[in-house]
Amino acid sequence: MVNSLKGLFSGKSKGVGIELAADRINLSQLKKQGGGFKLATLGSIPVPEGLFQEGQIMDAPAMAELIQSLLAENKIKAKRVATAVTGGRDTVTRIIPIPAELNDQELREMVLNQEAGLYLPFPREEADVDYQKLGLFVDEDGIEKFQVLLVATRKEITDSYIQTFQQAGLQIDVLEISSFALIRTIRDQLRQFSPQEAVAIVDIEFESTEISIAVDGVPQFSRTVPIGTYQIQSALSRAMNLPPSRSTDLLQSMTIPVTPADTTMGGPGKMGGTNPGAAAMLRIIGELADELRRSIDFYLNQGDNLEVAQLLLAGPGGAIGQLDEFFTQRLSLPSSQIDPITALGLEVNQEIPQTQRPGLGVVLGLGLREAM
Radius of gyration of the chain from Cα atoms? Predict the structure, then answer.
């Protein structure tokens, strides 16, 4: 049991990063090498249906067994781990203003015991809460205040993670929100934008997509929508009369048509008007684009927020061919797929296909946290 998100903003160790997802468990171990890092181990194991749903561990013993199998398969001896809770209805991240004259103890008391309850969609006593003090600013009344990043999740979620990893023989050093791990991975890429520009990070996972809008590397807004690679794959399979499958490998071979002229088959995996799956796939991706637009509009309508300069596409769904071009055209916003290996400047001993790289953002961020 813990009283706050474990080690979210403090502590370091030499362990392993493990990402839990509805379709897979990912593992990474990074080691310092010179001025950078080397990817020592990268592994993954499929998760059967029903063990992990909507960000919740449904069967802790079974998940613990899978974690143990993944560790054994990759000959990992580490006993400490960094892991992450997926975004959704059970997590909250907010930027809140706090008077600057408060000392550290007064700040802690105000954030954890007074302010937190005002921003949570669930009772304060059911939440694990942590915070990080950010920069100073002067409000419209001329009062100097701190920006504080508030992070919370339901206790039952954090407890289930702790118990699962304990059953796997591991101690959690860091338990954070998955978007934080992803931001850590691409922080150098985010530094290319000025403090007056916002960036929308779109993490397309198996069951859902987490949208995080960050300014100067700090998440200002987050929203999770129930559209992921499984929904896209399912629509494609139905339209092509293929049997249902949890595998989304088919998506990795597809390329989205992005111009009206793209109406014929253009080689292996190229979708056009004659492909029975094209319309079904584009309908789901179009719905996701509409949700992105609604999220960005909502963010912009919340006071003096900055315009979004670019979309960064992450997660397994971020690797779908020409998805960046599709969103660029659909939303009139520059879009690009992330490459975590390049973003971190990692030395690797194994070939990692470009189609797999966008899906490694979270697990590499967790591995980096343990290696730093």
Answer: 21
Return phi, psi of residue 251, to 5°.
-60, -35
* CA 313/CA 295 separation, integer angstroms: 15
Report, as an integer, the average pLDDT of 318-323.
93
pLDDT at residue 269 is higher than 50: no
Cα–Cα dist 357/339, whole Å: 6
Structure confidence at residue 4 (pLDDT): 40
CATH superfamily of 191-337: ATPase, nucleotide binding domain (3.30.420.40)
- Going by DSSP bridges, is the β-strand pair 91-99/198-204 parallel, antiparallel, or unpaired? unpaired
pLDDT, position 29: 95
Cα dihedral sign, 88-49-8-211: negative
At the second CATH level, the architecture of 91-153 is 2-Layer Sandwich (3.30)
Helix H, strand E, coil C: the string for 15-50 is CEEEEECCCEEEEEEEEEECCEEEEEEEEEEECCCC
Are the beta carbons of 223 and 121 closer than 8 angstroms?
no
pTM of the model: 0.89
Residues 6+ apart with CB under 8 A from 66: 25, 45, 47, 51
**How high is the pLDDT of residue 274?**
54
Enumerate the domain spans of the chain. Answer: 91-153, 191-337
CA atoms of 65 and 88, how far apart (whole Å)? 25
Q: In what order do the strands lie in the sheet with 218-225?
A: 218-225, 209-215, 198-204, 308-314, 335-337
Question: Between vectors from CA 185 to CA 182 and to CA 189, what angle results, nearest 5°?
Answer: 105
pLDDT-based confidence at 172, cuts 50/70/90? Answer: very high
